[in-house]
Amino acid sequence: ARMRVAVVGAGASGLTAIKCCLDEGLEPTCFEQSQDIGGVWRYTEHIEPGRPSLYASVISNTSKEMSAYSDFPYPEDFPVFLPNARLLDYLRLYAKHFSLREHIKFGTTVVRIWKRPDFATTGQWDVVTEEDGKQTSQVFDAVMVCCGNFSEPSLPLHCFPGIERFQGQYFHSRQYKHPDVFQGKRVLVVGMGNSGVDIAVEASRVAAKVTICTNRGAWMLSRVFDHGYPWDMVHNTRLMSLMRNNLPRPLSWALVNYKVNQRFNHENYGLQPERRYFLPILNDDLPSYILTGRITIKPGVKEFKDNSVVFHNYPEEEPVDIIVFCTGYNFSFPFLEEAVVKVENKHASLYQYVFPTQLQKPTLAIIGLIKTLGAIMPVAEMQARWVTRVFKGRRANVSSPVYQNAVHTGQVLFGLSFDEVLKAEWLPYLDTIASFIGAKPSVLELLFRDPRLALTIFFGPCTPYQYRLGGPGRWEGARQAILTQWDRILKPTKTRVPASSSSLCPSLLTVVGFLLLLAALVFGF
Known about the structure:
Its EC number is 1.14.13.148, 1.14.13.8. This is Flavin-containing monooxygenase 1. It is found in: Endoplasmic reticulum membrane. Its cofactor is FAD. The structure is a single chain. The protein is of the alpha/beta class. The chain folds into two domains: 4-151 and 331-428, FAD/NAD(P)-binding domain, CATH 3.50.50.60; 153-222 and 263-328, 3-Layer(bba) Sandwich (FAD/NAD(P)-binding domain), CATH 3.50.50. 30% of the residues lie in helices and 19% in strands. It contains 17 helices and 26 strands. The strands form eight sheets. Strands 3-2-1-7-23 form a five-stranded parallel β-sheet, with helices on one face. Strands 9-18-10-11-14 form a five-stranded parallel β-sheet. Strand 20 and strand 21 form a beta hairpin. Helix 1 (12-23) runs parallel beside helix 10, helix 7 (238-246) packs across helix 8 and helix 10 (376-392) runs parallel beside helix 12. The longest helix has 17 residues, at 376-392. It is globular. The chain starts with a strand and ends with a helix.
C-alpha cells in the first residue's frame, strides 16, 4: 500500500507539496478550507475568516524567474514582477499541468491532528476534518502543514497607550482592500513592513496627509535594481552569496550598507534601521514620495489622544483621522496539539525550520514557514522534495542522531514574533536542503563538462532550475531553462525593439568572481 499523506492548505506551498508526494509515489490528500486554490495569492473583495487577505494592488516582490517552481518556468509573456492575478494564473497552470486538483478536497477544514496511540512505532496521525458541518476522522501515515502565516493578524493594542480614547477609525492592514477609504483624510500607518509602505504610498495619492511611524526604520530596495535588472537576479547569485557569507561580518555589513545607501542615503530620509542587519523592504516609490512631501516618516508612537498622536522624542502632537496597524501576523497552528510544535516565548523548535524536533518519528513537516530574502516558491518546493523523501525513508539526513541533537544546536530555535521571524539566507538554505537529497549542482564538476553552464550558474542568478540538473527529480529541460532565463525576462519589456539575448556580467565583478571561483575550487565548493 502507498503511504497516505495529508496536506493542509492548497496555496503556493500546498500545491508543490502535492506534486512532490506524487513524484515520490506517495498518496496525497490535500484539505483546503476555501473553494479554490491559491492561498494568499487569490484576491477576494470580502475578508474570509481564517483565510489570508490581500489588497487589490499587491505585486510579487520577487521576479518570475526566481519565483518559478524548478521544473515549470513562467510563460515568457508574463510580466517580470507579477500582479497577484497573474501569479494566481501561474499557480493554476502548475496545478493543471501536473493534475493536482484531483487530490484536493475543497471546502474542508482541518479541525485537529493528533498522534495515534501507536505513534512511537507507526508514526501515524489521526486527522479530523470538517465539511458542511460534518466531521470525519481519517488515519494518515504523514502530514505536511502548508497553511502559511498570514491568517491571524497580530494587533497588540496594549502597546499603544490611549488607543481606547481615539475617536477616529483604526484597523489592521489585513482589512485593507482599496485606497478610497483614505480620501481627504489624515492617515497614520503604524509599522514599516512591505504592506505598510505599499498602503502608505497608495493612500498618499488620495489622502490629505500620510505619516509612517516606525521604531526600527528599514533598508529599502527597489524591484528595479542595477542597470534596470530585477533586484533578486542581481542579489541572489552564487558569486554574491559567496562574497556575503565568506567575508568577515563587519566587511559584509559595510558592503550591504554601501549598496543600499547607493540609491539614496537612508539617514537623510529618516529610514536608517536601528539594528544593522535585517530583511529590507521592497518598494519602488517611497523615496520619491518622501522627497515630494506626500509621505512623512516619524518615530514610534508614544500615545494616542482623542484626535491625534504623540510620537517618541517629538514635542508636538499630530492630528489623525485613520490609523492602519501594519503590525504583522501571529503564527498559529490551531489544529495541532501543543506538544507537536512547542511555541515558547514566541520560539518554536524545528529542525531546518521544517521538522518539529520533539517527535519520535519525522512524519509531520511544516512547509513554507521560512522568511528569506528571496522567493518562497522554490524554498517550499525544495522543503517538500526533501520531506517526501524523508517520509519514504530514503537517505535524506534525518538520521536520528543529527535530528535528536538538533535541539542543542543554534539553528533550531527561531523567533516567532513578527519582526524576528526566522530569517535564513535564501541561497545557502536552498543549497543545504538540496544537498540532503543530492540535488545541489556542483559548479566544479560542470566546469569541466559544460563550462558555459557552469559560468552561467556561478555568475548568473541562482534560478531554481539549477536544482533540477541532477539528483532525484532531475528534469531534462533544466539546462535549457537556465540558458534562456534572460530571454524570458526581456521578452515582456523589450517590446519596441527585437529582443536579443543579454545577460548581466559587469567586468570588475567578473575578475573578482574568477578569483573567488578559483579560491572556491581550491577550498572545495
